[in-house]
Design goal:
Blueprint: H1 3-26, E1 30-32, H2 42-49, E2 54-57, E3 62-65, E4 69-71, E5 77-80, E6 85-89, E7 119-124, E8 130-132, E9 134-138, E10 147-152, E11 158-160, E12 163-165, E13 170-176, E14 182-184, E15 187-193, E16 208-213, E17 229-234, E18 237-243, H3 245-248, E19 271-276, E20 281-286, E21 289-293, E22 295-299, E23 305-307, E24 310-314, E25 317-321, E26 329-331, E27 334-338, E28 341-345, E29 356-357, E30 360-362, E31 365-367, H4 373-376, E32 394-399, E33 409-410, E34 413-415, E35 418-422, E36 428-434, E37 442-444, E38 447-451, E39 481-482, E40 488-492, E41 501-505, E42 513-517, E43 522-525
Parallel strand pairs: 1-2, 2-5, 3-6, 4-7, 5-8, 6-9, 7-10, 8-11, 9-12, 10-13, 11-14, 12-15, 13-16, 14-17, 15-18, 16-19, 17-20, 18-21, 19-22, 20-23, 21-24, 22-25, 23-26, 24-27, 25-28, 26-30, 27-31, 28-32, 29-33, 30-34, 31-35, 32-36, 34-37, 35-38, 37-39
Antiparallel strand pairs: 40-41, 41-42, 42-43
């Protein structure tokens, strides 16, 4: 290890110890929860939380809850020291209203009453929260909207070693307007739905999500919604979040906002492992294991780092970037068996979000494109088999932009990924698909190991559908490029303003320069890069380069080799 690397790791280690010390210094006293009473332990546990304590559950014991627990004080929380205890959310948690499940008291009428039957543990506007080493089991009731944990306005929260299961619809863990929260080593599993209410009062398109960001944000004094920032989700396992056949096959036109859809357009698997809602920022999602969910990571945030995750058996997409997702990095993930497309990008029908912009997809390993045997194969768990299409209509990367979308995907780079296909990948149609309203997509330096026994079209092959939208003269639409030997790519601070720029010599644009920086501005320029530009790059984005020069002239500035991305701040505890 170099001296510089040792110095960096030493600084990070010291920073982590300082965080831990600060957290411990502000923690409340730890008190014994006592033995469960066998019927309802809610009142006793709440009384201890209301004194600002960290409540220590007895190892291996089961505590029954009939209404939500609320953490009101800084440094408070719930832990188990030893064999994890269980908090059992009884069938008193039976909320079916998706619109009031996160309601709270308000100073003047009319406003909905704060429900007690829709959230297991709630913490709002507190610091140094600790929830550690216990199980949160929900007695399953099909079609109910109940969350296990809801954090809102929490700063420096620690969720570690938790296990949650038995939920039906909604967010199992909901994070809203939180800062420096870490979720590590938790398991979210075995939750499902087979029905959703279509009654007018409760009608909402159904969704089940393991961890959901910013769907119910706080507002600041000016009325501006506050995003979540600096959150770490690492080393967790999220598995088996599913819809059964009854809900899977319900027509979408039964739900609000989808009345015009045909009856053949069904709900499908609307389950996500992690949803990063807009405009959450500086989120790190690292080294998680995700398996058997509708979609793995649904990203709508900005500056989200998605790295070293293992995602398998997603009915639709392993990674999705949509609704204004911008300046995100997906690096070094292992992505297998995505039924529709391994990596999906799309614009948005919402004018309130920006374009899906400047995302970098690099160094990922992609296998088993189109495989849905986890949902319709011989080994599916009893009761969870659904009907799977067999058409050849799956993609390694799909960039969509329909005329109905008010926002489009712009300047997204898919570089240096490895795609491996075998004879079992019978649904793989194209490696890459890019629709006409997706602008300046760059597919560069990717490797395809083709063991299918089939020939896949490459750009420029006459009378062959390669999946890429074209102009009437046959050229690729709107600046799309696939492995152009003349192009060069680097991520550096080109203009020395402290912001990372993606710099591309992009021949399809008809320009020598295309530059975008991390505050979402785009410049297309003929100017040369300053000779020392590549030495000024910050550490916030990965350095991606080629063996050729970045400049158009004969001088060759230094080229940094590719490395893993690092965000602006070290990760919290």
């Amino acid at each position: 290890m170099s001296r510089l690397a040792r110095l960096v790791w030493g600084i990070l280690a010291a920073w982590t110890l300082l965080c831990l010390a600060a957290s411990n210094a502000s923690a409340g006293p730890e008190v014994d929860a006592g033995m469960p009473n066998g019927s309802d332990d809610t009142k006793a546990l709440q009384a201890k939380l209301d004194k600002g304590n960290i409540v220590s559950l007895r190892p291996g014991q089961t505590y029954r809850l009939t209404r939500r627990l609320r953490v009101r004080y800084d440094g408070s929380g719930i832990v188990t020291r030893g064999t994890p205890a269980t908090l059992l959310m009884t069938k008193a948690f039976n909320n079916i209203d998706p619109y009031t499940m996160f309601s709270q008291p308000c100073p003047q009428a009319p406003c909905p009453a704060e429900p007690r039957n829709s959230v297991g543990i709630r913490a709002e506007n507190v610091t140094d929260l600790v929830l550690e080493n216990f199980r949160l089991e929900k007695m399953h009731i099909d079609g109910t909207y109940v969350s296990g944990i809801w954090l809102r306005g929490v700063t420096r929260g620690k969720l570690a070693g938790l296990e949650l299961w038995g939920f039906s619809l909604g967010a199992i863990i909901a994070l809203d307007s939180v800062h420096e929260v870490a979720i590590r080593g938790c398991t979210i599993r075995d939750s499902w739905a087979n029905t959703a209410s279509t009654l007018p009062k409760y009608n909402r398109f159904p969704q089940l999500t393991g961890i959901w960001f910013d769907d119910n944000r706080l507002k600041d004094v000016s009325g501006v919604l506050i995003p979540s920032t600096d959150v770490v989700i690492a080393n967790n396992t999220i598995s088996k979040l599913r819809f059964k056949q009854g809900l899977f096959e319900m027509p979408r036109n039964l739900f609000d906002g989808m009345e015009g859809r045909p009856n053949t357009d069904t709900v499908g698997h609307q389950t996500d492992a992690i949803t990063v809602g807009p405009p959450a920022a500086n989120v790190t999602i690292m080294a998680n294991v995700i398996d058997v969910v509708g979609e793995g990571i649904d990203c709508m945030g900005t500056k989200v780092r998605i790295q070293d995750n293992r995602i398998a058996n997603t009915y639709d997409c392993a990674l999705k970037f949509i609704h204004g997702a911008s300046n995100n990095i997906a690096y070094g993930n292992t992505l297998g068996a995505a039924g529709y497309a391994t990596i999906c990008m799309a614009g948005s029908a919402m004018s309130s979000v920006g374009n899906t912009f400047g995302n970098l997809i690099t160094k990922n390993v992609i296998t088993n494109v189109g495989d849905r045997t986890a949902y319709c194969g011989a080994n599916v768990d009893p009761g969870f088999t659904v009907t799977c299409p067999t058409d050849v209509a799956a993609f390694a990367v799909d960039i969509q932009s329909s005329p109905l979308q008010l926002r489009s995907p712009y300047y997204n780079v898919v570089q240096g990924n490895t795609i491996t296909a075998t004879s079992n990948d019978v649904r793989l149609r194209h490696l890459f698909r890019s629709e006409a309203r997706a602008y300046y997509s760059l597919f560069y330096g990717n490797v395809f190991n083709n063991g299918t026994g089939r020939v896949f079209c490459t750009p420029g092959t006459p009378t062959c559908d390669d999946g890429l939208a074209r102009n009437p003269d046959g050229t690729l639409a709107n600046g799309t490029e696939v492995d152009p030997s003349a192009d060069r790519l680097a991520v550096v601070d080109v203009d020395g303003n402290g912001l990372d720029d993606v710099f591309v010599h992009w021949s399809a644009s008809g320009q020598k320069r295309l530059r975008r920086d991390m505050n979402r501005t785009v410049t297309i320029s003929q100017d040369s890069i300053p000779s020392d530009a590549l030495n000024r790059g910050s550490s916030r984005a990965p350095a991606v380069s080629t063996t050729g020069p970045v400049r158009a002239d004969s001088r060759k500035p230094p080229i940094r080799s590719p490395r893993a991305p690092s965000m602006a701040r070290p990760t919290p505890r």
